[in-house]
Every structure is written in structure tokens, then in C-alpha cells.
Amino acid sequence: MTAEIPAVAAAIIDGTYAVEPDPVPMHDVEHAWSLPADSSKRIVIHRL
After folding, report:
1. In this structure, what DSSP letter does residue 40 have?
2. Looking at the record's lineage, which domain of life comes first (predicted)?
3. What does the alpha-carbon distance between residue 47 and residue 25 come to, in Å, rounded to a whole number?
4. Which bin fits 5, alpha (ψ -120 to 50), beta or left (φ > 0)?
5. Given this model, what pLDDT does residue 38 score?
6. C-alpha–C-alpha distance, residues 48 and 16, integer Å
7. Number of separate domains in the chain
8. How many CB atoms lie within 10 A of CB 25?
9. pLDDT at position 4
């Protein structure tokens, strides 16, 4: 699975695979996991 990360990242960058990020600050990570699932977005944890 780890070996596929570069190919998936490239597909995201070139638009082949569309990803709508849902940025969540690290201090809200516990809250983010309790949110209802939304298959159109991907949670992205950041330090800010």
C-alpha cells in the first residue's frame, strides 16, 4: 500500500483523482472523528 502513495499523489495533482479536502486543525482532531461521514471530502489534519 505504501508503494502506491506516489502514484495516488500524482493522480491527485494532475486532476485524475479529485479530492476535496476538509482541513481540520490538530487541536480539533477528536471533534473531526465524531463528524458524520461525507464521502465527497477527505479530512486533512494540519498544525495550525
Report:
1. T
2. Bacteria
3. 6
4. alpha
5. 78
6. 29
7. 1
8. 12
9. 93
Residue 29: how many CB atoms within 10 A of its CB? 11
List pLDDT tens digits, range 1-48. 899 999 998 998 999 988 888 899 999 989 888 888 777 888 888 987
Q: Output the nine-digit C-alpha cell for 17.
A: 483523482
**What's the rounded Cα separation, in Å, for the pair 20 and 29?**
18
Q: Hey, what's the cell of 10?
A: 500524482
Predicted local distance difference test score (pLDDT) of residue 6: 93
Rg of the chain (C-alpha set): 13
Q: Which domain holds residue 24?
A: 2-46
Helix (H) or strand (E) run with residue 39 in it: none
